[in-house]
């Protein structure tokens, strides 16, 4: 029997302050050439099996709750998972009859948090409201008037309302003003661009330093000097270099030692992400997403020939620059002293680095059916390589979170 790669990704769930409140775990176990809908019981069963056997839950979600999709049969079966670590999401196609409602009440009595996914108000779902804690509303399938109507109906009940598939900050602000408590979607990785808005002074300073770091003529002493001027950057860099992702067998105790061991390119890439993480108006999850994307691009590039892993790290990192700076990405990248091939990869996904970047972005979204697996296989990138690169990057990102 052929072993099947378990593809797993996560989506952050945040509150009104954009503070992390949990992750939804996304899972597929199909072969890469046939990523189609499969039996829901099998999917969730294998997700739980992989969480406990192939993955470390702490490295996937830290101390945060993990939201997992549950079918009817899995809800009715006796579960052995820890109620303090998981939120059980009732899928929209689950029949909410008396037997299931009794089951939900029992699960809540055992300490589980229950969420209704893709909620639509009807004669069945309204009966389930007293037995759940969180209701998720897909804001992509409703206009603003419909969202407001649903919210006003549901706010009368003792449930938290979660807006999911929030794609931009305009929708985030709208749902926030209505009173939604939780949010899920890709808006955290999007810029808050306002027409005619100038870059704030603190972002200008960071942008100038980031640009300086990418100067191909920067030397050992100049890079060390930039780092030494900011003790917090120096401290975090040493912590990151000594994490499991980079650890080389002995502790790195100085900036110059870090540059000597890892090289100029690797260190300036790490300093770039640490510089961006200092922007206090941005959620920590954006820094984590940027680091995971950059490291995943780097790891995948190591599987190929004809591309530079350090360059792929930078391409992945700079692809998030618009979200940090709240300016158009093409304008930001155009002004940087990086090779044209890097700019083409970031803006147009051209070249091998562009291929790696766009498929990395699809993977982190859980859009596995859109990944060009055939093209990736031509470059020695398999489904297992994608999965392992993502998971190892998450582990490294956890190290940054704990700095």
From TrEMBL:
Record Pfam families: EAL, HDOD
SMART domains, A to Z: EAL (SM00052)
Entries under Gene3D superfamilies matching the protein: EAL domain, Hypothetical protein af1432
InterPro entries: dGMP_Pdiesterase_EAL/HD-GYP (IPR014408), EAL_dom (IPR001633), EAL_sf (IPR035919), HDOD (IPR013976), RNase_Y/CdgJ (IPR052340)
Residue ranges of domain EAL in the record: 1-205
Source organism superkingdom: Bacteria
Domain named HDOD: residues: 199-384
PANTHER family, sorted: CYCLIC DI-GMP PHOSPHODIESTERASE CDGJ, PTHR33525
The protein, known as: HDOD domain-containing protein
Species this chain originates from: Spartinivicinus poritis
């Amino acid at each position: 029997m052929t072993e099947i790669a378990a593809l797993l990704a996560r989506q952050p769930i945040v509150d009104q302050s954009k503070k992390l409140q949990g992750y939804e775990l996304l899972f597929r176990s199909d072969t890469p050439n046939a990523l189609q809908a499969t039996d829901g019981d099998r999917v969730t069963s294998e997700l739980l099996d992989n969480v406990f056997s192939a993955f470390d839950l702490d490295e996937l979600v830290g101390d945060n709750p993990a939201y997992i999709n549950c079918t009817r049969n899995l809800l009715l079966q006796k579960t052995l998972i820890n109620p303090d670590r998981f939120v059980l999401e009732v899928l929209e196609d689950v029949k909410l009859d008396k037997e299931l409602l009794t089951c939900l009440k029992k699960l809540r009595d055992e300490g589980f948090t229950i969420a209704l996914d893709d909620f639509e108000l009807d004669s069945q779902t309204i009966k389930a409201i007293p037995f759940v804690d969180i209701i998720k509303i897909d804001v992509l399938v409703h206009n603003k008037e419909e969202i407001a109507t649903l919210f006003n109906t549901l706010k009368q009940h003792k449930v938290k309302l979660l807006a999911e598939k929030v794609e931009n900050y305009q929708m985030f602000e709208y749902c926030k003003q209505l009173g939604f408590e939780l949010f899920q979607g890709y808006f955290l990785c999007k810029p808050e661009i306002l027409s005619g808005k100038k870059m704030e002074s603190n972002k200008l300073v960071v942008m100038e330093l980031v640009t300086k770091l990418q100067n191909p003529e920067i030397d050992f002493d100049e890079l060390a000097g930039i780092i030494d001027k900011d003790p917090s950057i120096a401290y975090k860099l040493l912590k990151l270099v000594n994490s499991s992702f980079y650890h080389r067998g002995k502790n790195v105790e100085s900036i110059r030692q870090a540059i000597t061991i890892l090289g100029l390119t690797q260190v300036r890439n790490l300093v770039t992400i640490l510089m961006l993480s200092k922007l206090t108006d941005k959620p920590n999850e954006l820094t984590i997403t940027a680091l995971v994307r950059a490291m995943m691009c780097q790891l995948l590039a190591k599987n190929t020939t004809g591309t530079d892993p350090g360059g792929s790290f930078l391409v992945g990192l700079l692809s998030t620059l618009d979200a940090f700076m709240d300016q158009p990405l093409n304008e930001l990248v155009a002004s940087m002293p990086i090779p044209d091939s890097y700019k083409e990869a970031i803006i147009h996904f051209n070249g091998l680095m562009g291929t790696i970047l766009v498929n990395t972005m699809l993977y982190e979204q859980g859009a596995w059916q859109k990944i060009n697996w055939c093209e990736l296989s031509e470059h020695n990138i398999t489904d297992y390589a994608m999965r392992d690169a993502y998971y190892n990057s998450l582990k490294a990102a956890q190290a940054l979170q704990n700095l």
